[in-house]
Amino acid sequence: MKTTELKICGLAAVRAQFAADAGAIQRLYFDYETGRKIGVICRALAQAKKIYRCVEPAELVKLPGSGHHGAIVVVVAEKPLRTPTAADAQAWARRREPLLLLDRIGNAHNLGAIARTAAFFGVPRLVIAGTADAARPGEAAHRVAEGGLAHVEVWRADDLPKLIRDLRAAGYDVLGAAARGGKARLAGKEKEPPPVALVLGNEEHGLAPEVAVACTRLVTISGSGKVESLNVSVTAAILVWELVGRCQG
Question: pTM score, two decimals?
Answer without folding.
Answer: 0.90
